[in-house]
């Protein structure tokens, strides 16, 4: 039977509804990296629980917490949010990118990095009994540092051993094809992989070359018009759907700032994608001449069927 591994245990994949594949439930980023600022600190369990409840209010079911060890995850606090709300929350093992690596990660061997990720998957994250249900690796802007490569290969080897879904951080949507070459070299089955942040680089031809490799395409900066208006994202999604890749797209907001979340007094919050963005995709598909039933099916795939397929393991 296909299951999804949440922090509170394995659940039937069929029970997972509307899902965002990359958010940050609780995160306390390290102060030693250059980009640190108070807006990035998500440590108020009451506020996060309200935000998750707001997501559930529009039918939300499951969230993958993308907070890796190097970005200040707090599993007890994240589990508390899951228990309070009843939302399925999937924990992540692996690493983000070199600017966040503490010295012990930066200097660790591939074997040490692999052992730490395996522990999080098989025994529990950070000494808790709560096991990771997804894996993460990342690269820098148009390149991969030596420590990122060691971390990436370590995560790939755990993926092969566990079968867990793997998603990646690309810096502004760059270096995706090179990531795929490394993943293939390590023997990872690419149908279990999502390349992340690709709506930071909405080059239609580039996206199709990535999709041809059989991976999921991660659009996870939705609503962030400081990068691109959502019209650009909608157009790229429609192009991918029309090219036959509609079942290989995952959505999320990566709303890792207080100012993005309604519960902290910001916005647009977790409700935006399911409540506003996907209905817009459906409407614009109809405007482009697609039958309403087909457009509605795309919406259901984006919110439910695609992430369910990505997260499912046997």
Largest sheet: 6 strands, parallel
Number of strands: 11
Number of DSSP helical runs? 10
Distance between the termini: 6 Å
Descriptive overview:
The protein has 314 residues and is of the alpha/beta class. It has one domain: TIM Barrel (Alpha-Beta Barrel), CATH 3.20.20.140. Helix content is 40%, strand content 14%. It is built from ten helices and eleven strands. It has a six-stranded parallel sheet. A three-stranded parallel sheet has the order 3-4-5. Helix 8 packs across helix 9 and helix 9 packs across helix 10. The N and C termini lie close together (6 Å). The model has no long low-confidence stretch (mean pLDDT 97).
């Amino acid at each position: 039977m296909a299951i999804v591994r949440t922090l509170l245990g394995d659940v039937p994949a069929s029970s997972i509804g509307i899902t965002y594949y990359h958010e940050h439930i609780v995160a306390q980023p390290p102060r030693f990296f250059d980009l640190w600022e108070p807006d990035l600190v998500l440590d108020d369990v009451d506020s996060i629980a309200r935000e998750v409840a707001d997501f559930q209010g529009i039918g939300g079911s499951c969230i993958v917490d993308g907070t890796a060890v190097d970005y200040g995850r707090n599993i007890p606090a994240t589990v508390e949010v899951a228990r309070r709300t009843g939302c399925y929350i999937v924990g992540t093992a692996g690493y983000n990118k070199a600017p966040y690596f503490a010295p012990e990660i930066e200097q660790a061997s591939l074997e040490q990095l692999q052992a730490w990720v395996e522990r999080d998957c098989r025994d529990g994250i950070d000494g808790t009994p709560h096991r990771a249900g997804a894996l993460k690796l990342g690269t820098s802007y148009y390149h991969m540092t030596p420590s990122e490569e060691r971390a990436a290969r370590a995560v790939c080897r755990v993926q092969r051993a566990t079968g867990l879904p793997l998603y990646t951080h690309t810096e502004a949507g760059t270096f995706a094809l090179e990531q795929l070459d490394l993943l293939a070299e390590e023997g990872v089955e690419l149908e279990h992989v999502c390349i992340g942040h690709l709506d930071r680089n909405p080059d239609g031809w580039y996206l199709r070359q990535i999709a041809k490799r059989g991976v999921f395409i991660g659009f996870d900066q939705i609503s962030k018009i400081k990068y691109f208006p959502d019209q650009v994202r909608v157009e790229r999604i429609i192009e991918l759907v029309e090219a036959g890749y509609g079942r290989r797209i995952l959505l999320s907001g990566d709303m890792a700032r207080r100012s993005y979340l309604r519960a902290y007094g910001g916005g647009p919050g977790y409700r935006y994608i399911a409540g506003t963005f996907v209905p817009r995709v459906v409407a614009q598909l109809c405007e482009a001449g697609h039958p309403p039933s087909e457009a509605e099916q795309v919406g259901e795939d984006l919110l439910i069927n695609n992430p369910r397929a990505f997260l499912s393991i046997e």
